[in-house]
Amino acid sequence: MSISSGPKIIRPITLQPCNRSSDNPILSDHRITTFIGSTRTLRLTQSISSSQRRSASTIVAVSDVAKRKSNKNLLLTKEEGLEVYEDMILGRAFEDMCAQMYYRGKMFGFVHLYNGQEAVSSGFIKLLKKEDSVVSTYRDHVHALSKGVPARAVMSELFGKTTGCCRGQGGSMHMFSAEHNVLGGFAFIGEGIPVATGAAFTSKYKREVLKEADCDHVTLAFFGDGTANNGQFFECLNMAALWKLPIVFVVENNLWAIGMSHLRATSDPAIWKKGPAFGMPGVHVDGMDVLKVREVAKDAIGRARRGEGPTLVECETYRFRGHSLADPDELRDPNEKARYAARDPITALKKYLIESKLASEAELKAIEKKVDEVVEDAVEFADESPVPSRSQLLENVFADPRGFGIGPDGRYRCEDPKFTQGTAQV
Amino acid sequence: MSHCIASPLQTPVAGDRKIVTFGSNMLGIVRQSVNGARSLSSQGFGDYMMRLRPVASAMRRYSSATKEMTVRDALNSALDEEMAADPNVFVMGEEVGEYQGAYKITKGLLDKYGPERVLDTPITEAGFAGIGVGAAYHGLRPVIEFMTFNFSMQAIDHVINSAAKSNYMSAGQINVPIVFRGPNGPAAGVGAQHSQCYGAWYGSVPGLKVLVPYSSEDARGLLKAAIRDPDPVVFLENELLYGESFPVSAEALDSSFCLPIGKAKIEREGKDVTITAFSKMVGYALKAAEILEKDGINAEVINLRSIRPLDRATINASVRKTNRLVTVEEGFPQHGIGAEICASVVEDSFGYLDAPVERIAGADVPTPYAANLERMAFPQIEDIVRAAKRACYRSAVPLAATA
C-alpha cells in the first residue's frame, strides 16, 4: 500500500522562463509557492484563458513528471486516458461558458468556477461507481459533471430553468442528483463534510446492520483549504477515524480562500498532517497532475472500499479565475498565477497522451470539438427551456405535506385497518 | 420498570415545579441489578426477562382501566417499538448508549439493539447532526438526540440548511427522514444558557416539522409519527415533564399508534375564552382553567401539539366560538409563538374578537438563576388566570402592569 502516514514528496514541475521579463525566471524546487507579498497589487493582470494556452503557447511547460512517467509502464489505458481527458475538457469548456453566460446576464447570483482544478475532480471521480457518493461545496459544477449529471441539466439549473437538475430551485451552489448520488452543493463551507461522513456511515450501516454484504459504497468529500480550519472538519476527521468510515476527505488546496491566503490563515499550512493526528493517513499530492491524483485516489478509494477507514488527501491545486465571478481577484500575484497556468493539468495530460502514444493529436482535437458541441447544446437547451411555473414555488417543501398520520383521503392513517399490519415484533 | 408502580415522585402536585435530578426515577426497584451490573456481555435470563417486562406489563394491562405512564417511559417505548419495527431507525447522540441517556429516555436501547444502532458520540453537535443528515439522505432514519436544545445551536446549520432545505433545493430528489429530539425550554435553576425555548426559531423555518408533546399519549404518538415521517422533524420535549405520569388509553399503547402531525388537541372544552398552550404550559393552563371555573369563566384549553404546521383551523374555530384568546408560552415574547397565533387570528377571525389577544410569554430577559427571579421570569398559573380575566373584562389590572 503506497499510502503511509508520511508525506509523499512530489517535486514540482520545473518551468522555462516565460516571456515577461520582470518575472523571476528561475524557480527553485519548493513545494509551496512563495507568495508572501502577493497582496501587492501589481500591473494589470492578463487573464490567461484556456484558448490562448491551447493555441498560442507562449508559455512552455516542461513537465518532468510527464517525462518520468513515459519511461515507466503506462499508468492508464487509452480508454481511461481519453475518458479522463474528455472529462477535464468538459469541465473547462463548461466553466468558460458559464463565465460567458454570466456576463451576458443569463446566469446570476453566486457562480464559482473550477478552472484549473479539473485534475482533482477527474482524477478522483472517474474512479467511482454510480452508487458512490460525492459531496462538494459551492464550487460544484464540475464535480456534478464528472459524476455523470448531464451538462444540459447543470446548465439549465444555472439558468434557473425548470429543466435543471433541481428544477431551478437549487442553483449554482446546490447541485443535487439522487440518481448520480451527488449529495450537494453546500454554500456553508464545512457543511458538506458531516453530510459526507453521514453518507459513509450509511454505507457501513447497510453492511453491518442491514446485512447488505456487498455494500461497499465510498463517499468523497471535496472542500478547500479554508475549510480545513473549520471545526466541523476536525469533528468529522475524528468520527470517521473512530468508526472507520469509508470516506476520503479531499482537500482542494488552491492556496486562497477568497482573498485570504492559506499561509495567513493557518498555523500549520500542511493540511495533510492533520490526518495522522486523528489516526488516518494524510497524503499530499500535486493536484495539477491528473495522473498522480489518480494514483493516490485509487489507493485511498481502495482503502475505503476494503473497510480500512478514511484517508485525508491534500491536493495542491490552483484556480485560474477568481473566487467567484464577482471577485476582482486583485490580491493574487500575477507571477503565481502564471506559474500555475504553466502547469495547466489539461495541457500536461495532453502532452502525456501524445508522447506516450496513447492518443493522436487528431483524436484529442475530436474530443475537444465534441465537448464544445455538448456545451453549446447545453446552452441552447437551457435557453429554450421554460422558467418554473408559479405553482412550483410552494412545491417540494415537504416530502409528505399533509404530515404523517393523515392519509390522502383526509382520514387519520392510524384509523386505517391495514395500518396495523406493520406491528412491531417486540 | 417503575411505570407500573405509582410513586410519590410521579403524581403531579398542583402549582409545583418538579425538580428532577439525574437518575432519580431510576431508583426503579426492578431495574436496579441491570443498572448496577451495566456490563453488556452479561445477558442472563434474568436480564432478558427484565428487559421484556415493560412491554409485557403494558400488554397485561391492555384490558384494564386507565393505565398511567410517565412521559419518559412513553418516549422510551416509542423509540423501542420504532427501532424494532424498522431496522433503518437508529439513535445517535451524547450519552444515549452506556449512560442510558442523559435523561434516561434511551434507557435499555443499547442492550437491546447494540452499539451499531445506539451510538454514543463525542461532543460534536455539528458533526453528528450532519452525519445524521447524510445518513438520512441515503434513506436511513436517524433519531438525533441533543442533550438539550440549547446545544442544537452548535448544529443549527445542519438542522436548517442541510436538513430542512434539502428537499426543496433538490426539488424533491432528496428527502430527509430525520428526527432531532431533546428537552427544550427551562428546567429548574439551570441558568440562562440552558433554559431557552427554541419553538419560535425552528417554527419559522419552512421544511421543518416542529412538534411539542405534552402528555404521555402525545409523546408516544407524536414521536412515532415523527420517526415515520419522511421529513425532518424537530421534537421539542420538556425536562420537567419527563417524570410526570399521565393516563394512557389502550389504543395509545398499541405499537402502531401515532398521532397526526399538524393537528392540535382540545384538552378542555369551554365557551368563554380560548387558552392556547404547548408542552408544560398545557398543564398550567388546565389548572388555570379550574381556577377560572370557580369564578364563572369557562375556558377552552388547546394543546397545540404541533408548532409547525400550526393548526390554525382549530385555533380559529375555537376563537370564533369563544371570541377571546390568551396564548401561553415559555419562550421569549418578541417574535414568539403567541405572536404568530395572534397574527393568524387577526387575519382570519378579526370580526369575532371581543377583546385584544392576550400574549403570555417568558420575561424578556435571559433566564436568571435565583429561584425567585426564575419564577418571575416564566409564566405561572396566576398569570394565565389574570390574563384570562383581563380578556373577559373581569379584571381591573391594566395590561402594562403585569411583567
UniProtKB/TrEMBL annotation, chain A:
Keywords in alphabetical order: Coiled coil, Oxidoreductase, Pyruvate, Thiamine pyrophosphate
EC number, UniProt record: 1.2.4.1
Top-level taxon: Eukaryota
Entry-linked SUPFAM superfamilies: Thiamin diphosphate-binding fold (THDP-binding)
Gene3D superfamilies tied to this protein: 3.40.50.970
Cofactor(s) annotated in UniProt: thiamine diphosphate
Enzyme class: oxidoreductase
All residue ranges annotated as the Dehydrogenase E1 component domain in the record: 87-388
Coiled-coil regions listed: 357-384
Pfam families: E1_dh (PF00676)
Reactions that this protein is recorded to catalyse: N(6)-[(R)-lipoyl]-L-lysyl-[protein] + pyruvate + H(+) = N(6)-[(R)-S(8)-acetyldihydrolipoyl]-L-lysyl-[protein] + CO2
GO molecular function, one term: pyruvate dehydrogenase (acetyl-transferring) activity
GO biological process: pyruvate decarboxylation to acetyl-CoA
Its biological purpose: The pyruvate dehydrogenase complex catalyzes the overall conversion of pyruvate to acetyl-CoA and CO(2). It contains multiple copies of three enzymatic components: pyruvate dehydrogenase (E1), dihydrolipoamide acetyltransferase (E2) and lipoamide dehydrogenase (E3).
Subunit structure: Tetramer of 2 alpha and 2 beta subunits.
Protein name as it appears in the record: Pyruvate dehydrogenase E1 component subunit alpha
Species, as recorded: Tagetes erecta
From TrEMBL, chain B:
Keyword hit for Metal-binding: yes
Gene3D superfamilies (UniProt xref): 3.40.50.920, 3.40.50.970
Enzyme Commission number(s) from the entry: 1.2.4.1
One Gene Ontology cellular component: mitochondrial matrix
Cofactor requirement: thiamine diphosphate
Start and end residues of each Transketolase-like pyrimidine-binding domain: 69-244
Chief location category: mitochondrion
Keyword Metal-binding: yes
Entry GO MF terms: metal ion binding; pyruvate dehydrogenase (acetyl-transferring) activity
Enzyme class: oxidoreductase
Catalytic reactions on record: N(6)-[(R)-lipoyl]-L-lysyl-[protein] + pyruvate + H(+) = N(6)-[(R)-S(8)-acetyldihydrolipoyl]-L-lysyl-[protein] + CO2
Highest taxon, organism lineage: Eukaryota
Location in or out of the cell: Mitochondrion matrix
Keywords recorded for this protein, A-Z: Metal-binding, Mitochondrion, Oxidoreductase, Potassium, Pyruvate, Thiamine pyrophosphate, Transit peptide
GO biological process: pyruvate decarboxylation to acetyl-CoA
Subunit structure: Tetramer of 2 alpha and 2 beta subunits.
NCBIfam families in the cross-refs: PRK09212.1 (NF006667), PRK11892.1 (NF008854)
Purpose: The pyruvate dehydrogenase complex catalyzes the overall conversion of pyruvate to acetyl-CoA and CO2.
Protein name: Pyruvate dehydrogenase E1 component subunit beta
Organism: Tagetes erecta
